[in-house]
Amino acid sequence: MSSYIKEIRGAVNSEITNEFASNLGNIIGNFMRPGKTVVVGRDTNSASQMIKRSITAGILASGINVVDFGVSPIPTVHYGAHLYNTDVIVTITASHMHPEEIDIKIFSNHDIPLVQRHAEKVKWDNIGELSYVHDYVDKYMNAILENIEKELISSMAPKVVLDCSNGSSVPFLPEILSKLGSEAILFGCQPKYSASRKFAEPTPESVSLVSNLVKDIGADIGISMDNDGDRVVFIDEKGNMIRDQTILGLLAREYLIKNPKGTIVSSVTASMSLEEIVSDYSGNLIKAPINNVLDEIIKNDALFGGEDSGMYVFPEFQKCFDAIFAAVKVLEIVCKHNKTISTLISEIPEYPRTEFSIECQHDEKDKVLDSLKEKLEPQSQIDNTEGIKIMGNDSFVLVRPSRFEPLMRVYVEARSSGKLQKLSHDIKKAIENA
User: How many whole angstroms separate alpha carbon 63 and alpha carbon 32?
Assistant: First the structure.
């Protein structure tokens, strides 16, 4: 599954209407063979529920069956889909950035062209069948327990503070931690259904409650999930939020210890520290466009991969961004090495790094990138994997256009704070004057 992934994001009832969603479902169904099934799932957002029903109606109208997983995190939907005769998974979740938007993701074994076309509907007596299932829940949780060192974690009984953002992972991760014998202090673990709830980008402020609880009760680690189960943030025992890039390096190192010379996949935003870790184990690091990380993991049979937004893939378990498995895996690593999480991450190099956005209209983005290329010195090391990445011996600057917003995303990393400040100032000026 997931050889092809398509993503549609937009405002509910204006850009993504029920009519649009129904037609999208119809188009998906038209590109499937008779007798096949589509598996659908959603988060706790009320708008997601509405749009999921419209997509489902469109699929059924094309004569294709639908298996509805109800409210379920993306990795759980992905794992459970193999139980059914399906080539396609559709998930609907609230946007992390804008409360009025939802995100429709289509995972498929074959390319489904999402083009404007007249979608065909079958006769009334050939419409697809809809079924609701729940058997995937226990199968997913049991599979996680079978793929980690359960006895080790149980023997250490780590104390965990867990925030599920009142999202779709609520029924899963708390139960898994309980079965592992972990002492879990829970909040945000009651599903809330809302049409306007915004799921904020993780920041030190947004996870401050987790941080404070970790310190106050002497927990070993804090875990903060997003609403749909594919992103996770970790907090060390001192209450400090851990960089996504640092967790990426920690997990990559763990897999390379067992499999030296293996392949790790990350995005063009990957830290220089990840390059060093992979090099130390004679591994192969592939840096893909941000939206192609999962594709490259599958294509290159990678050991492990992830993005710098707290999204990690464990191919040994499943080829999908899975924050629930990531949470348990990090817990396993802490217990396995019998070290505090702060000690473990201190072994992963961290360099001064900043990320920011600059307003840029969609039709100006290519012009800005071309202007930057013209201003570069001929001897500059350039990576055009996505946007433009200027690499030095002790730094890099990456400028990439946002897919959905009128913004240029900028990532700067350097081995010194002084170099970081200078590069950030220079690139801001260059973009503004382009």
Answer: 9
